[in-house]
Amino acid sequence: MGADTFSNMMFANWFGGWEIVLILAVILILLGTKKLSDMGKGFNQGFNELLKATRDVADELGDKEQRVTGVVYEAITPDSRTADFTFRTQTENDSSVILFIAQGFGVGRIPFAPGTFGSLVGLLWFLALLSTGNVLLFLTGSIAGVAVSVWLCDKAESILRQRDPRSVVLDEIVAVPFCFASWVAVLFFKNGHLPAPEYFFSSDTWLLTAGVFAAFRFFDVLKPWPVRQSQSLPGGWGVTMDDLLAAANVNVTVLLVYCAKMSFAL
User: Fold this and answer.
1) Of all helices (H) and strands (E), which one includes residue 36?
2) Helix 181-191 to helix 235-265 angle, to the nearest 10 degrees?
């Protein structure tokens, strides 16, 4: 058996039956029985919130040109109060767009486990970056996502007047690609190119993908050192950095498991 074939088999068989049971047990512990019983109701309410957020932003964007014109027109009239009101309405419109993106395009408004739903959107972001097939675009997009998250999450905190609001899930979204960094790196250096998006959902690898996802939620929820401590960083850095450190813990775990498997196989 060649080294490459053996390496592929090791990646594909990290998780057996008992590992799956363990992951499910951890999820049950983290979510709790009461939350699980409310899942259907919460998801339905959250889906309605998502549709409402999408409609609100679409309506406000559709009115944007008219509102901007109103600022110019009313500003030259004697009624300065009207001009102030029009300008304030436009500012509220900008805030709605910022919140819509920071809240994961609406999924952060889901009352049940918004961070988990945001992480699912993060999987789509990860697959979109992979679909470029270019490692430079993959890295640039991942880093740019972090920069956007720091900026928008800081704005969202100011708008909502809350410290790290639960509804703000852009930080989870941009952190997900980093959760797969070690796995992608191994495949890239072995094959000389990025893996295709469908590779992570094949019959041989989807359980490992689910394990990486579950590990990210585990570290993000429990926040072991230094994840929780990073939340004291100012503004959007505090919101985003804890998720990046949770992703770093995922990579350490993945590499430790892989090295242990390789050692036992020798």
Assistant:
1) helix 33-37
2) 50
Q: What is the dihedral of CA 96, 102, 103, 105, to 10 degrees?
A: 80
Identify whether the C-beta of residue 263 lies closer than 8 Å to the C-beta of residue 251: no
Q: What percent of the chain has pLDDT over 70?
A: 64
pTM summary value: 0.71
Report whether 63 contacts 41 (CB < 8 A).
no
Structure tokens at 165: 């609001």
Beta strands in 110-231 (DSSP E): none
Q: For 60-77, give the secondary structure using H, E and C.
A: HHHCHHHHHHHHHHHHCC
Both tokens assigned to 14: 């990290």
CA distance 243 to 255: 19
Mean pLDDT calculated for residue range 182-201: 94
Both tokens of 261, joined, read 């498997």
Render pLDDT for 223-257 as a digit per residue (tens, 0 to 9). 999 999 999 999 999 999 999 999 999 999 988 88
Q: Average pLDDT, stretch 164-186?
A: 96
Structure tokens at 223: 């926040």
Helix (H) or strand (E) holding 95: helix 80-102
What is the Cα–Cα distance from 229 to 242, expressed in whole angstroms? 8
* pLDDT tens sequence across 62-109: 555 444 444 444 444 444 444 434 444 455 667 889 999 999 999 999
> Is the per-residue pLDDT at 21 higher than 60?
no
Contact 57, 96 (CB under 8 A): yes
